Amino acid sequence: MKKWEIAVIPGDGIGKEVVPAALDVLQAVADVHGGIAFSFIEFSWSCDYYVEHGQMMPDDGLSTLRNFDAIFLGAVGNPKLVPDHISLWGLLLKIRREFEQVINIRPAKYFRGLSSPLAEPRDFDFIVVRENSEGEYSEVGGRIHRGDDEIAIQNAVFTRKGTERAMRYAFELARKRKGHVTSATKSNGIFHTMPFWDEVFADVKRDYPDVATASYHIDALAAFFVTRPHTFDVVVASNLFGDILTDLGGAIMGSIGIAPAANINVNGNYPSMFEPVHGSAPDIYGKGIANPIGQIWTAKLMLDHFGEEELGALLLRVVEDVTADGVKTPDLGGTAATKEVAAEICRRLREHA
Ligand code: NAD
Ligand code: IPM
Ligand code: MN
Predict the structure, then answer these.
(1) Which family does it belong to (predicted)?
(2) Where would you tag: which of 85, 199, 237, 343 has the fewest CB atoms within 10 A of its CB?
(3) CATH superfamily of 116-253
(4) What ligand has the least distance to the C-alpha of 76?
(5) Does 277 contact ligand 2 (Cβ within 6 A)?
(6) What string of DSSP letters covers 194-233?
(7) pTM for the complete prediction?
(8) Cβ(243) to ligand 2 under 6 A?
(9) pLDDT in tens, 55-108
């Protein structure tokens, strides 16, 4: 029997509600299969932890995480307690960087049983490959002067290695899918980095003559996500553009509460981290109504990562069945609680045992 060792970080806000729900579902998946098991070790690293300890995780936090097969994270952020840039750079972004999780995979698809806000949603199914380690998320820059002359400078960092790596990942993924890659650019307005991005895209594309491509400015691309999402297969985007596009991907599915994500360490020298697209949603935390599907679909991405694609497919099918039968949280127009959705998914999974 294969036993996967998972480090669990519920984090803040609704992370503490949707993570336990998704762990119940993972346990049900293991019960169905019989050949796999999970060991979940939980860490309370969060903004509450910061208030007590003055840091988001202990000094040896990364070396503790390193030995796990994967990290399963809810969400980080409680701006009432800790400024966001401190909490995020102290935990989520720190893990992404230190563990070289350079690719962030974020699928979106027309989801059975959901009412998409699009007037005429067609069957869409795309994956955003988000560059996850550099770009606009950089520590280069600073604050100078004060008063009326105050200036904040933020330098975006695009390396050929990082840019090319994200693009090659997208092309390889497209080969296993519908054979199409779209590049999210902004080379009309961003003077240095985006013309560079286009150049690297043209270079990489030459190695994949069998893959069709398109390139759109990010503003137009955002509009196309609304007007014709069914025309996309794999979309490769910089860190910030990918961030924004994937909340939009969630929204056109019906709610950002269902959008999943996987932070992938491509070399396999550190664990990858599985964490949904949404945040800690302080506005609904504590009500028991957070949608657990983003976290549960994220668990499916973790199963895929472990090579358990069949189990992953079964899980997603069951989630769609439950949604189509109307067991939905309020963000999807339903009345079910977080726990009810998860319990129904577990019940149906066990029917497959
Ligand atoms: P958010 O994603 O937390 O919430 C945006 C809106 O979507 C809110 O109205 C929220 O109620 C709703 N929503 C989000 N997830 C939902 C779910 N599962 N079910 C139902 N509704 C859901 O974004 P925000 O408000 O910009 O950020 C809140 C905090 O979370 C901030 O501290 C932010 O920095 C942090 N954040 C963390 C992550 C992460 O850890 N991966 C991601 C995004 C934001
Ligand atoms: C995400 C989040 C993070 C990001 C924030 C919380 C730093 O929005 O994972 O999408 O921008 O990467
Ligand atoms: Mn985001």
Answers:
(1) Belongs to the isocitrate and isopropylmalate dehydrogenases family.
(2) 85
(3) Isopropylmalate Dehydrogenase (3.40.718.10)
(4) 1
(5) yes
(6) HHHHHHHHHHHHHT-TTSEEEEEEHHHHHHHHHH-GGG-S
(7) 0.98
(8) yes
(9) 999 999 999 999 999 999 999 999 999 999 999 999 999 999 999 999 999 999
Of the candidates 264, 265, 301, 290, the one whose C-alpha atom is nearest the C-alpha of residue 109 is 301
d(CA 81, CA 329): 28
| Ligand 2 contacts CB of residue 12 (under 6 A) | no
Identify the CATH number of the domain defined by range 1-102+262-353: 3.40.718.10
Helix (H, G, I), strand (E, B) or coil at 249: helix
279 alpha carbon, closest ligand: 1
Structural domain spans, the chain: 1-102+262-353, 116-253
Q: Which ligand is nearest to the CA of 331?
A: 1
For a substitution probing ligand 1, which of 94, 256, 328 has the most ligand atoms within 8 Å of its CB? Answer: 256
Q: Is 254 left (phi over 0), alpha (psi -120 to 50) or beta?
A: left
Give CA–CA dist 217/184, Å, rounded: 6
Fold match, 1-102+262-353 / 116-253: yes
Ligand 1 geometric centre to CA of 31 (Å): 31
* CB 91 within 8 Å of CB 57: yes
